[in-house]
Amino acid sequence: MTLKTLFRKYLFIFCLTVGTVSICISEVLGTPFILISKKLYNKYISFTKTFAGILFVFLVQSFSPTPVTLTYDPELRNLFYLDRNSCLETIASERNIVMANHQLYTDWMYIWWLAYTAKQHGFIYIVLKDSLKWVPILGWGMQLYRFVFLSRKWNKDAATMEREFRFINKVPEPASLLMFPEGTNLVQNTYERSKLYADKAGVAMPKNLMLPRVRGLFYSITQLRDSMNYLYDFTFAFSDHYPKKYAAEAFSLQQLFFEGVRLRRMHVHVRRFRISDIPLEEKLFTKWLYQRWYEKDQLIEDFQKTGSFPGPRRLNTTVRLKSRLEILYLFSVLFTCFAVFFLISLFL
């Protein structure tokens, strides 16, 4: 490992650690709000959640700069635009579910950036595997953020989802639930496992995706359909010629953030479905979801031939904050507390 790589590695770890510790302290400092009002406490936690969105966008911008080309279905043409600094601005419904194919370990960071462009980065709820909630500092913070942790044991997961979705349904402010229906990153062994399932179930296997897991998304939609407006569908692809077959094998977290390996360009295509139009019966929903996944697979297949997704317009931007100074927001609660303690000490 070169000196430059070591420097990048420890600088990244330092930034991540300082940022997450500051956010966790800010979360803990807001605990007394529970005694005043749960509504006030939830608003405060959403406020600190914007810090996490800012932190992760800052880390991508600083350590893994990512050019982006955004395309979308024609009916969404009025929802995306670039400001005078070529930063993406998004107009999204206030309450929605987001699903995406899972290409890289950083996909969720890119989706949080998209939420940031819609000013919804304080209202995002992510479905994650259960083991992540025990990651020191990060996991503790995610638990306070009411992220949904699943163990892939349905009896346990159904109870977890019911509890968390009851909370999301009652939250009066915006809410965005992020799910990856494939369940994990697309790599050789996960693709092969998915193909075995497809063969056993007698359904067609996509060429560039895994089959989506139906039950979790179906349960989410049935539980949230009265309080959610739309299901947004993001399809990710990359311009890079991978040294390996799959993007996740070619671009690990270490390569992207420690070694300075850069993605040539990330392409995102956005579709939107009205949740009230999605089938309520599980067999019909399964057929509906598989059809959407075959369409995504065809989008990626065409992308590999043409180098772009279809759309009325292509927006070229980068994953970035409107201003790097926004990173100072992470410390705003701490600065305020220190100032208050200092003023109190003057009169003691």
Automatic annotation (TrEMBL):
Originating organism: Schizosaccharomyces osmophilus
Family from the record: Belongs to the 1-acyl-sn-glycerol-3-phosphate acyltransferase family.
Molecular function terms, GO-annotated: acyltransferase activity
Protein name, entry field: 1-acylglycerol-3-phosphate acyltransferase
Transmembrane segment boundaries: 12-35, 327-347
Phospholipid/glycerol acyltransferase domain location: 96-218
A Pfam family: Acyltransf_C
Assigned keywords, A-Z: Acyltransferase, Membrane, Transferase, Transmembrane, Transmembrane helix
A Gene Ontology term for the protein's cellular component: endoplasmic reticulum
A GO BP entry: phosphatidylinositol acyl-chain remodeling
